[in-house]
Amino acid sequence: MVSTVKKSDFDEMRPGIKTPSKETLLTPRFYTTDFDEIAKMDISVNEDELQAILEEFRADYNQKHFVRDAEFEQSWDHIDGESRRLFVEFLERSCTAEFSGFLLYKELGRRLKKTSPLLAECFNLMSRDEARHAGFLNKAMSDFNLSLDLGFLTKSRKYTFFKPKFIFYATYLSEKIGYWRYITIYRHLEQHPEDRIYPIFRFFENWCQDENRHGDFFDAMMRAVPETLNDWKARLWCRFFLLSVFATMYLNDLQRSGFYEAIGLNARDYDRHVIEKTNETAGRVFPIVLDVKNPEFYNRLETCVQHNEKLSEISQSNAPKPLQLLQKLPHFASMGWNLVKLYFMKPITMEQGVVR
């Protein structure tokens, strides 16, 4: 079958180099933090666990895993039309997210080398993993005649500053939700190989173990710095980051449900499973988690999905920008209100997550 979507259908900076997707509230972000504050942290209360995790990183279980094999050496024109667009978008978003982790961890490793060798080596080895992931994804994009200029991304993307404890919350959840996303897709395709439209999914089982180990590192870091978990402010921030990560994933995936249909998954069912598993996992360290089995939780997320669809329609209309902004305001307001209501839903207390 001849593809109906050729590389010229994507915006390119130069031949074969895809123009990065426009940054929005829902796109993967690049982060920076207060490196000096992390350097001053006393991690002695949990240093043994961190040392054990470092030994796992050193073992480098996936050293020879991310190697392309003969199955990649074929034409992928049968993935065409809208499916092709969504798949390239999936690869780009995943690559950008992995590369974001690489940049943050690499800089942390460099900055902490003299003050905290243990943490520096952990961050450097996590950056190694993220670089492999990003490179593997970018190479996959080349099968569709495109790739990302990661050097350009490094210089052109805006960097969001997060205090260290916010970095811990956000990256812990990002790594753990990444684990559940990858392993859920892998297990589905293991049972339904007819839906495995591209060989990259065969690598997801080992891939998700990297994500899991990275999440365990940030779990150990939070336990080493008890104030990130055991006061009233920590409870509020845990709720905020859980909701932010879950809502962002839900809105993104429902906007791209065609990708999940292409691999035999229902985007809503997939997201609900991933959210519930990630929430359950977070309960092992966070003092509270969200009541994601309360019907109100998904009812309000669905309302946000509807308003997000309206926002997309308005953005794609030919209306003047000032008029578009006026048209968007009520949708932004309703989404904001529903997210606030979700934030103030009664959470579930996880006493075992509190560091005493």
Overview of the molecule:
This protein is mainly alpha-helical and 356 residues long. It is 62% helix and 4% strand. The protein is built from twelve helices and six strands. A two-stranded antiparallel ribbon has the order 1-2. It has a two-stranded parallel ribbon with strand order 3-4. A two-stranded antiparallel ribbon has the order 5-6. A hairpin with a 2-residue loop joins strand 1 (12-14) and strand 2. Helix 2 (47-59) runs antiparallel to helix 7 and helix 6 packs antiparallel against helix 7 (204-224). The radius of gyration is 21 Å and the shape is globular. Residues 1-8 and 352-356 have low confidence and may be disordered.
Labels describing this entry:
two-stranded parallel ribbon, 62% helix, mainly alpha, single chain, 6 strands, 12 helices
Count of separate DSSP helical elements:
12
Strand order of the largest sheet: 1-2
Question: What portion of residues is helical?
Answer: 55-70%
Q: Strand content of the residues, in percent?
A: under 5%
Uncertain ranges? 1-8, 352-356
- What class, by secondary structure content? mainly alpha
Give a brief rundown of this model.
The chain is mainly α and 356 residues long. The chain has twelve helices and six strands. The strands form three sheets. The chain has a two-stranded antiparallel ribbon. A two-stranded parallel ribbon has the order 3-4.
